[in-house]
Amino acid sequence: MGAQNLQALLFDVDGTLADTERDGHRVAFNLAFRDAGLDWEWDVDLYGKLLSVTGGKERIRFYLEHYNRNFTAPADLDGFIAGLHQAKTDHYTRLLSEGRIPLRPGVERLLREARKAGLRLAIATTTTPANVEALLVHTVGAESLGWFEVIAAGDIVPAKKPAPDIYFYALKEMGLEPDDCLAFEDSSNGIRATRGANLQTIITVNDYTRDDDFSEAALVLDTFGEPDVPCHVLAGDTKTLNGSGYLDVAALRRLHKDT
Ligand code: XBP
Ligand code: MG
Fold this sequence. Notes:
This protein is an alpha/beta fold. Helix content is 40%, strand content 10%. The chain contains 9 helices and 7 strands; from the N terminus they run βαααααβαβαβαβββα. It has a 7-stranded mixed beta sheet with strand order 3-2-1-4-5-6-7, with helices on both faces. α1 (21-35) packs across α4, α3 (56-66) crosses α4 and α4 (77-97) runs parallel beside α6. It is globular. Xylulose-1,5-bisphosphate is lined by residues 12-15, 21, 25, 54-56, 88, 125-128, 131, 161, 187, 189-190.
């Protein structure tokens, strides 16, 4: 593997580009429930359990099936869930527009360096396309939408992560093989998706995913790090960072060659 030069980087969004779940998606779900007159409250612990299912509509359904079986569901359950989810998306994108969720350390730096180095960029996420746009526009700026050759998001493939389909889709759109790329994820559902598509994967953990199984990762970090805010290697070859405290394009090329 790694015979070809590294050509492209494929990024997950939630948990990887930004810590969106606890203070973003979770809060937006609760606001949507309140608006609908429901007394459902997804606290931080319960939300951690619900994160086993990716996709907001799928997560609401899972909640009803496993944590709120006494709820009398309306006849049109799909329509009911879709309505709640649209309200959640509206709240979530508003929270982002208020600048509530920053990108994680090192993310913007690495994206800019990768562009300068001529690497191709793509996004592969289960979240709704409007959420990806709002995150990028309200952090890096609107021009960053054009940095990504493909933004593969939401219902574009029927089977969400941990299925590899969203990565297959992005690779096909870009005309690339898995060996040409590195993927970035933060969760066990994410790495199951990347490995299912044969992609080498760099993980940055967060509070919800720290204890997930990342045995298939090429490298596990706490963040991408910045020159003045070093990251820590949690698993993998510490030499990848070459003594620096941050992940840069040279480190990515070293990792790609070795895997
Ligand atoms: C992200 C998700 C998303 C968000 C909600 O998973 O699971 O479902 O929590 O997004 P990943 P929507 O980071 O693995 O892509 O409500 O827009 O579906
Ligand atoms: Mg994620």
